Amino acid sequence: MDVSFLGGPRPQRGVGVVAPFDFALDRELWRWVPEEVSLHLTRTPYVPVEVSLDLARLVSEHETLHDAVRTLHAIAPEVVAYACTSGSFVGGIAGERAMCAAMTRAGAVPSLTTSGALLDALAELGVTRVALVTPYTVSVTRALEEYVAEAGVSVAGCAYMGLTRHIWKVPYREVSEMAHKAVRPDAQALFISCTNLATYDVIPQLEAELRIPVISANQVTMWAALRRLGTRAVGPYQALIDPAARSGPARPEIPGLPDVRGLPDGEQQQEGWT
Question: What's the number of CA atoms in the CB half-sphere (13 Å) around residue 146?
């Protein structure tokens, strides 16, 4: 950060983030954030419930959101983001909108959720058929399918991991394998759900391999929050964030993931998302 002798650090802009009590990927959120923006994170109270529809409902109660947003009030963020996918889709579209309204009332600032940002991202990319990867159980995954269907988006393939805890420990290779299982030929994009699932480095590689945009829970949350500030997220070779990537992303080499650059020249060639 630039520092002047008399003036100190440059002014910063703030994004408040409300996350569930078990959120473990603070450092991943920061990777999408430009230098002039600061994230101010707070968490919902602990409840002794594993990842499930019951937990999703508990961490998205309006009273819980109100209290969490009020903890951010003193530092005056310009926007507040609720960083939890299941907690924001469990009540459907009407429930997600009600959550945003509750947070806005509590903090007097614009508010958004991960699941609302997902629908905005799909609209931005012109996607009406999306494949899904989730770390959830079948019941939570089905609720996500119902949520996107309610928005008029059909599900073109789905794969889930059946996890109820320690989701942040899932390695990139497993995320990549599930992505390849989920995507059917008619999928226009892939969404990787759950803000507790690490995805930043895997997105460009998957886009190169699958030849469709790949979006994730943390990515769409930061993209939407920063767009509200009138600035852009940082995500080279990520189609949602880097428009140049939509016409043919580069293939960065990512440790632990398969590298497609050893294929014959004819198989390496890629023109757009065709």
Answer: 14
